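ok so dumb question maybe but i'm new to this and my supervisor (M.) told me to 'just get the structure for CAD' and walked off. so i did the thing. is this what she meant?? sequence i used:
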Amino acid sequence: NLTKIDKWFLNKMKNIIEFYNQLEESGSTLSAEQLLKAKRMGFSDKQIGQAAKITELAVRTLRKEMGIIPFVKQIDTVAGEWPAATNYLYLTYNAYENDIDFPGGYTIVVGSGVYRIGSSVEFDWCAVGCLRELRNLGKPTIMINYNPETVSTDYDMCDRLYFEEISFEVVMDIYELEHSEGIILSMGGQLPNNIAMDLHRQQARVLGTSPESIDSAENRFKFSRMLDRKGILQPRWKELTNHESAIAFCEEVGYPCLVRPSYVLSGAAMNVAYSNQDLLTY
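this is what came out, is it supposed to look like this??
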């Protein structure tokens, strides 16, 4: 009566919360049964790590030692009337066998992920152009993207299409399952860039711009040091985390000031402040 949400959904949420509490109580002594149940309920390695107070990588290592890895299934587009042979693939732990084989040799292209309609056209075109060029070179391709409003997620654009979120866990799982030749991150914008260093640390082969170069461009301190070494002038800047210090800095250097998130390459959420009020509004 309080929420007007159907009891069926409320019970599902209750189950998730109760199991999350169990994970918190177990901590780092997670059993294989608990870990498998968590994955089948949809918990990511990161969420399990937060509950158990261990790192995402520790959960991944533990999961692989226990032999808990996802299966690849095809989306059934023919309502079970005859065997499905679609190119729409997804990962799941609620299965006992894979729908496809893994011969290896595929090159993975990571898409842009979730974007508002009309704002991701440049990433989509980059991904499509990349897939076409790889096909012209005779290389089999895999696309990882979960934005249905893109051409890159058309069933015939690549050899294998994974409708999956763009996270370190998912991309690394697909990379290892497919015995991939390498991963191209530079076509998808900010989301793929965010996982570049994590993939690199796990010895995934990143093609194109190196993860270290991406990190050097996104990390303001590293980028600033590089400009200093090259003798390139740069405006005064500072990384700040609260209103008071931001206002103090802007008043010291004088308005207008450019304000933007600290670890991104894209221009999203960037603004120019002309006064203290502009800064607070941003």
